[in-house]
Structures are given as structure tokens and as C-alpha cells.
Amino acid sequence: MAPIIALDFPTLEDTTGFLKRFEGGEPLTVKIGMELFYAAGPAAIKAVRQAHPVEIFLDLKLHDIPHTVERAAYQLGRLGVQLTTAHAAGGSAMLAAAKRGLVAGAASQGLPAPKLLAITQLTSTSATMMHQELQIEGPVVDSVQHLAAVAQAAGADGVVASAQEAPLIRAITRPDFLIVTPGIRPAGSQKGDQVRITTPGQAAQLGSSAIVVGRPITQAADPVLAYQHITEEWRHANV
Ligand SMILES: O=c1ccn([C@@H]2O[C@H](COP(=O)(O)O)[C@@H](O)[C@H]2O)c(=O)[nH]1
């Protein structure tokens, strides 16, 4: 899978203006997150599809009681997107409810169900934060591996985690279980609020199924060139 571009923009105009730079290029996989979806709603999906041929990862990180999540996921399943997320910390009943909702919502429109990715520990979470604020003991990788096992057993299609944890997730999950990794920072780029980071090449070597990249592309002086460099590094290390 090509690198997934996180379209973290405040308006549809900013988003379609950004995609215009890629005009005539290959189809893209893009991530619509909370900022754009809360600003524009399902219209964001339509606008992005009209602007460029895309596969869509709708990253709304569902986390609520199972009944509420199932009903919300039903609505997301109707939108024709390819990937969605829910927090593994919501537990196995909530993840299973998300999966049921996605499948039912998609079926109501005659569409294939979006894949469900479980968020493990956010890539902005440090060991210190996890210990002191979340009161989870031990290494971050142990918590991530545990949440990946919970997610797989609950019927999720994969997880979101740092590539740093990919080898230990791979060791306990089935071969087609997806490991999608944000926290990607090409050498020399700003870390920002990300903590558990890797370069695109390291993510490929560590076994990520796909990488998610936002600011290193969206805030680059030349976003198309930045995307091309990241894609090259990712593909080169994947062979
Ligand atoms: O653990 C997580 C889960 C989701 N994200 C999302 O990925 C992108 C990363 O953007 P950058 O600008 O490359 O940091 C962003 O949309 C996050 O919401 C994550 O970073 N970590």
C-alpha cells in the first residue's frame, strides 16, 4: 500500500486545494480525521473523491459504550470508505460492536465493509505518560502487543501502532493482520507532538503494512515532492 496522506485540514477548500497539486498523478490513499470530518461531515468524503481518485481511511477513533459505537459504526459503514478506527481501550465488546455496525451499515448499501483498525497506544504516548497518567505499568510495547491480541480476538482487521512495536505485534497475530503506523518522520524532519517515531524506511523494515504521514507532506514546501521521496524510501525498503 502506498503511504497514506493524513488530510488534517480545517476546510474543504484547503483539502481540495492540496489534492489539486497531485492532479494527473497516481491514485492516492488519504486519511480523513476528526478535524476535517467535524468541519465538513460526510461531504468531506464526496469532495475528496471528486478531487482525486482515492481510497479513504476514515479515522474517527470511536470510543464509547458498545451500543453507541455499533450505531455510529453502522453510519460509517454506509459511507463507502475502506478503513476506519476504534480505540482498543474500549475493550473487546466495543470492538466487536464496531465491527458488527460497519458490516451491517455497508451491507445496507450493498458495499464491502470498511476494515476496522484498533488504536493501541497513540504514537504521541511516551512510557512516562503511560505509567504516570494512564497508570499502565511496563514497557509501551507490552501494552501495544496486549491490545493487538485483544483487537484480533474481537474481530478487528488490524491495529494502529508505532512501527517500533510492529515486530512484536507480528509475532502474535495472523499474517494478514494490518499494522498501520503513523508517527512517521523522514530523517531531519520536525517531530512535533509525536513520540514513538520511525522513518519510512525503518517502518518498512520493521514490518508495517502501511504508513500514515501528515505534516511532513502537508506542511512541506513542495508536498508532491515530499510525498514522492517518502514513497520512494518506503517502497525501496519494502522490497
Ligand atoms: O496513534 C496514532 C493514531 C493516529 N494518528 C494520526 O496520524 C496522523 C499523523 O500526522 P502527522 O502530522 O504525520 O504527525 C494524524 O492525523 C493523527 O491523528 C497518530 O498520529 N497516531
From TrEMBL:
Keywords: Decarboxylase, Lyase, Pyrimidine biosynthesis. Coiled coil: none annotated. GO terms for cellular component: cytosol. Pathway: Pyrimidine metabolism; UMP biosynthesis via de novo pathway; UMP from orotate: step 2/2. Residues 2-230 form the Orotidine 5'-phosphate decarboxylase domain. The keyword Lyase applies. Its EC number is 4.1.1.23. PROSITE patterns: OMPDECASE. Homodimer. Belongs to the OMP decarboxylase family. Type 1 subfamily. This is Orotidine 5'-phosphate decarboxylase. It comes from Lacticaseibacillus camelliae DSM 22697 = JCM 13995. The gene is pyrF.
